[in-house]
């Protein structure tokens, strides 16, 4: 992944950590359940967006970019068929 | 919510905060995308489980328990129809 | 469920049946995968909306409406705790 | 897509059509809401599985298989970057 993408991913994760810290405080303060549920739904959407971001980067650098510079060590030892099978397993986890 | 349920909810939120901190470290360390994605999927499932827990408690204490002790201040001013409409909106956020 | 709600639910289900029939035709015609995927995502959202509609009606007629007219036979034999536990299980299926 | 994969996809879609027809009958017969909801959750999971199947095939034939036999006409006119962007949009629809 190029530095700009990595930076964007890191800032997304930090924002999610902030959202979860917010949920923790709301629970400690005994806030109204529905308000907490809305924050949980927001954190979940942010995790989904992060997942989509990372998966696209993975498709670019490791699956399509096979053999090119940006590729991960782990992906290097895998065939394209193995990489697609791996993406399929990950998708099933997100959509299960 | 009774103290035992509140404790369980708090411990779930703390575990999720730990999972997100783990994702942050994995991203910093440039770990393999698919490993990060699996952690994201796990945190997402944990958030869903927390949402279901909280929503059940909300149905028990505020919607069904209308008029009883455990009810939230905010729920007191609402009719049952308003409470069901609110639950419906929250569900739509989770399933949208 | 009152007649108006039942009518609305039936019309939603018929629309989903139409969407799935459309997906079947697209697959038979060898249409572009991404177009089929968009239709699948649309049918999935429609199923979610139907689920939320039915769950709200269930909360109104069987869980909150315990003892009242609209209640289902099956719900009559259950306590409120059992009804909330059942809703919780259903939510877990939708969000699993 | 090869003939064997296409056959598998068609049989999945037909099974989903059967599930939705079952939901239609359950609604007509005024069956217990929670039973209908369980069927809706099952149809939704089947749609997700179909989506994952199709997306994997799309990655194999059109994104990775760019230039090879199995590729769709529509994919031929697109660059790899455009194909990844399209996959990203589809994922966002499934996870939104």
TrEMBL record, chains A, B, C, D:
<dbReference type="GO" id="GO:0003677">
    <property type="term" value="F:DNA binding"/>
</dbReference>
<protein>
    <submittedName>
        <fullName>Metal-sensitive transcriptional regulator</fullName>
    </submittedName>
</protein>
<dbReference type="GO" id="GO:0045892">
    <property type="term" value="P:negative regulation of DNA-templated transcription"/>
</dbReference>
<dbReference type="InterPro" id="IPR003735">
    <property type="entry name" value="Metal_Tscrpt_repr"/>
</dbReference>
<dbReference type="InterPro" id="IPR038390">
    <property type="entry name" value="Metal_Tscrpt_repr_sf"/>
</dbReference>
<dbReference type="GO" id="GO:0046872">
    <property type="term" value="F:metal ion binding"/>
</dbReference>
<comment type="similarity">
    <text>Belongs to the FrmR/RcnR family.</text>
</comment>
<dbReference type="Pfam" id="PF02583">
    <property type="entry name" value="Trns_repr_metal"/>
</dbReference>
């Amino acid at each position: 992944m190029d530095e700009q993408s990595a930076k964007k991913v890191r800032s997304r994760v930090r924002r999610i950590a902030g959202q979860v810290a917010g949920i923790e405080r709301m629970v400690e303060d005994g806030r109204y359940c529905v308000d907490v549920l809305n924050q949980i739904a927001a954190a979940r959407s942010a995790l989904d967006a992060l997942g989509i971001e990372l998966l696209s980067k993975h498709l670019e650098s490791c699956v399509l970019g096979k053999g090119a510079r940006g590729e991960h060590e782990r992906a290097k030892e895998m065939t394209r068929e193995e990489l697609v099978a791996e993406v399929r397993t990950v998708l099933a986890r997100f959509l299960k």
